[in-house]
Amino acid sequence: MRLFRLLSLLIALCAAAPVLAADGSWTQLDLHREGGQLVVQVEKGRLVWGMSLGEDAEDRWARASVLYTWRPGGGRAPWNLRAGPALKAEEIGWWQVADYRWATCLDDRDRCGALRAGWRLSADRWAQYGDWGLFLMADFTSIDRATLAVAGATHLPSGWGGQVSLWHEQGGEPTPTLMLTRRLGKRLTLRLGHKFVEDETFLGISISTY
């Protein structure tokens, strides 16, 4: 869909603009039988630029956000509290155009897209305890009232790790996911997971420059 791709490209350009001068970045690509998801996070100082693109069966969407970070508590492993504006571009049916403030269709009415704005709030923490690294995160976006909670642990000497997460958005069911990870190098990690509500298994990689 050309309209959706155009909106996605505009959001991606906004999110990727500061990547060359970044303090750190995170890129994640997961693929499953009916689609996949790409997530990019770029951090520069107190700002975190986020972008994600996804496709699931016939649904396509893109999200972007710019978050400001506070680090209360200090110490070696402070909490990162983040907040800022968010955008979502998505493919919709022609009969849904009237339900959105910013939406349009091409001439054949089979290609329609919408853009929505909102706020995103996030809190995360990574800490090391001996040979283990522990990651915790909670994330909320007012668009679709989408909530994500993540807890993960990695055995640092071996590179093996695991993660459990719970995703929920307005109109859907809470979706638990279990994932196994294996660090393949200093920056590259292999990901294998399963979403239980959709009964969907995915394989992916992540690349971190932190």
From TrEMBL:
Keyword Signal: yes
Keyword Signal: yes
Keywords, comma-separated and alphabetical: Signal
Signal peptide: 1-21
The name this protein goes by in its record: Cellulose biosynthesis protein BcsS
Organism of origin: Paracoccus solventivorans
